[in-house]
Amino acid sequence: MSGSSVIFRPNRYKAPLPMHRIPTSIDETLKLLSDAGYVADRALATILFLSLKMGRPLFLEGEAGVGKTEVAKVLSETLGRKLIRLQCYEGLDVSSAVYEWNYAAQMVEIRLAEAAGDAQRSELSKDIFSERFLIERPILEALRPDEAGAPVLLIDELDRADEAFEAFLLEVLSDNQVTIPELGTITAPEAPIVIVTTNRTREIHDALKRRCLYHWVDYPDADRELAIVANKVPGAPQRLASEIVAFVQRLRQEELFKKPGVAETLDWATALTELDRLALDPETVTDTLGVLLKYQDDIASIEGSKAKTLLDEARAELTAAE
CA distances (Å), 3 to each of 57, 132, 165, in order? Predict the structure, then answer.
């Protein structure tokens, strides 16, 4: 059976999400993101629209916490598609990402066949290496047809995986298929919507990038970050939200081991709202730096007088903009 082509039968999924059509313009894509609370710039909406229109994987690169993973979640929600997430890590292999055989069930089948006296080797080999003994992992699951439409496959933080795994992904991203030696080539009847993210802790091979459309997700400017805070933390007072964004924007200009992302900005806005703060003050900034910064050396370099200086500069920028 090796070398044959296999098209998956429909899965018996739970009740599917309501399916929505793929956006037909950049403006529709912007609205799709906005409807789910994702404040995107036009460049991201453009490359996302092209990815959906052309059926090409989208490769999103950028610092941690800038909203790359959220794009896949938003697509799943707004298009009514199933979200399948493959979280990458060092040592990730085919058995964890694509498929593996249910060895325990296969051994039981072999013992039962032997006990029944019908353990013909060729027939038994075909039987135990059939789909009913196949355990699907995220990539193989994403190749299954779905009543709600092709799922969204999120390959998250690819830079954490080994280069050998990148090489395996080439077949998946190029031809929407995987090859299982015992079964043959398994092809998706409809290409999944693929989002690949990386935090750029190492370079990804050009061969993989060529199969994708590419976009660098940068930190948002002040206006867009303020809109994000207003959307995600609606309970934050307007003055506090403005000062938070201005301070974080200024903080990112410092030499830090890990600059705060949008996720940290939202956490900080939530924390300060919980503390019933109406505006920032140097003491509060110093006391809550652990929400924004995750390394002690970074905290030590900012707390105290440096925090006051940054806050004064942030307020001056706000005053100048008013």
Answer: 26, 19, 22
- Do residue 208 and residue 234 come from a single domain? no
Q: Which domain holds residue 157?
A: 5-90+142-216
23 within 8 A of 52, measured Cβ to Cβ: yes
DSSP H/E element including 292: helix 289-292
| Other C-beta atoms lying within 10 Å of the C-beta of residue 226 | 20
Average the pLDDT over 90-115 and give the result. Answer: 86
pLDDT tens profile 117-154: 665 665 666 678 888 889 999 999 999 888 888 999 99
Which domain CATH number covers 58?
A: 3.40.50.300
Whether residues 120 and 150 fall in one domain: no
Same domain, 47 and 146: yes
First to last CA, the chain: 71
Cα 90 to the center of its chain, rounded Å: 17
Q: How many CA atoms lie within 13 A of 286 on its CB side?
A: 12
The whole-model pTM stands at 0.84
- C-alpha closest to that of 138 among 52, 196, 61, 207: 196
Instruction: Give the total number of structural domains in the chain.
Output: 3
> What secondary structure letter does DSSP report for 201?
S
Task: Round to whole Å and give the CA distance between 110 and 128.
Answer: 8
Same domain? 162 vs 62: yes
Residues 88, 157: contact at Cβ < 8 Å?
yes
- CA 199, CA 124: separation in Å to the nearest integer? 46
Q: What is the pLDDT of residue 79?
A: 93
Please report the pLDDT score of residue 21 as a whole number. 82
How far from 120 is each of 22, 36, 183, 201, CA to CA, in Å? 51, 57, 19, 52
Domain end, chosen from 216, 237, 253, is at 216
Claim to verify: residue 309 and residue 295 sit in the same structural domain: yes
Reading the block at residue 100, the tokens are 């593996």
Domain end: 216, 238, 264, which one? Answer: 216
